[in-house]
Design goal:
CATH class: Mainly Beta
Number of domains: 1
CATH superfamily: Exo-inulinase, domain 1
Distance between the termini: 24 Å
Largest sheet: 9 strands, antiparallel
Structural class: mainly beta
Number of helices: 0
Shape: globular
Radius of gyration: 16 Å
Helix content: under 10%
Length: about 200
């Protein structure tokens, strides 16, 4: 079970539920995200869903985590957040909240409709900007280790112990780190940030 208070394990901070809010800064969206068997899980199959972000802002950081998705899954980690969008789809009672910023894509490259459009939309890529150096080693249904690093202007995306993307930002800022709910069941565990 995820602790309800932050635990410090120098030099890492282990993230818990209290460290997250909806991507627009409103309260944690408990219909869209839940704790499941010690994992932070984005709930799939909903008509409307929300991204979440850390309460704390980070400038330089190393964010490590493990993720698991089912066949056809899609999610991502966003950083250098520029803004958030909130809208109500026509005819639905709920709303979407989406963080906007660079995204480390997490996906089932073989079965996800978006990922099948090409390397810029596949696992490990800087979504829609830079393709991963090679296909990410992800076994669908099992947990895979991942790491997102930002030091100054330099950013690295790691999946399964391999660096798949390295690039330089034009500018850097303090920012939250966001997890995307893209309408699929995706589990995150062992979320830690070193800053």
């Amino acid at each position: 079970m995820i602790s309800r208070r932050a635990i410090l394990l120098a030099p890492f901070a282990v993230l818990d539920l209290n460290d997250w809010v909806a991507a627009d800064g409103s309260e944690f969206p408990s219909t869209s995200w839940k704790v499941d068997d010690g994992c932070l899980k984005c709930v799939g199959g909903l008509a409307t869903f929300q991204d979440i972000k850390t309460r704390k802002l980070y400038e330089d950081f190393e964010f490590t985590f493990e993720f698991k998705m089912l066949k056809g899954g899609n999610s991502g980690v966003k950083y250098q957040i520029e803004k958030s969008d909130k809208w109500q789809p026509k005819g639905l009672e709920g709303f979407h909240i989406r963080a906007r910023g660079p995204e480390m894509q997490l996906s089932d490259d073989k079965e996800n409709v978006d990922a099948r459009k090409g390397p810029l939309k596949q696992c490990g890529a800087l979504y829609d900007k830079i393709a991963a150096a090679h296909p990410a080693a992800v076994k669908i249904g099992d947990f895979t280790a991942a790491k997102l690093m930002k030091r100054g202007l330099d950013v690295e995306h790691w999946i399964g112990g391999e660096m798949l993307v390295r690039y330089r930002l034009a500018t850097a800022r303090q920012s939250s780190i966001a997890l995307q709910n893209h309408g699929d069941d995706v589990w995150f565990r062992n979320l830690k940030i070193e800053s």
